[in-house]
Amino acid sequence: MSQDIELIFSRVRHPQTQGKIERFHRTLARSMSKQGAPECWEHWQPRYDGFVERYNQVRPHEALGMQRPAQIYRPSPRRYKVPGVEWEYPSGLEIQRLDERGFLRLEGKRYFICEALSGQSVAWERVGTNVLVRFRQMYLRELNLLAGTALSFIHPLSQIDGQVLPMS
Fold this sequence. Notes:
Elements: H1 15-34, H2 44-58, H3 69-72, E1 94-97, E2 103-106, E3 109-112, E4 121-127, E5 130-135, E6 138-144, E7 149-156
Antiparallel strand pairs: 1-4, 2-3, 4-5, 5-6, 6-7
């Protein structure tokens, strides 16, 4: 998200939306299981490196017209953004930094937002008795201040287009 990449969330083991990822994981699991369990943790990396080499450089893929991924790979024209520049939220939003465990403190209560974003600044806005919490361009949680609950609210702002936000 800090690289302006829009996240797409789907259910686990749901090939209709994440088929290529599910297929990759199945191929990886089969390859690793054929070799048997290594004696120590350090032996996994060479096995994985060998798998990646075969998968991308040697093995043709039917979905790619029997080409190898390395034959058609092109680097993205988008450049990596060096971290350090603080995201600028629109005016009118409250800004608060999450604690080291990913919690937001609001009106004397702690609400879990996201452990991966611990220490990051998030914005929040009140909508009635609820609070919508977002990180950059993505809404993450809907807090119900009366019930003291935090519900997942994964919704990219680019899909809202100024419409009224759905509330649960």
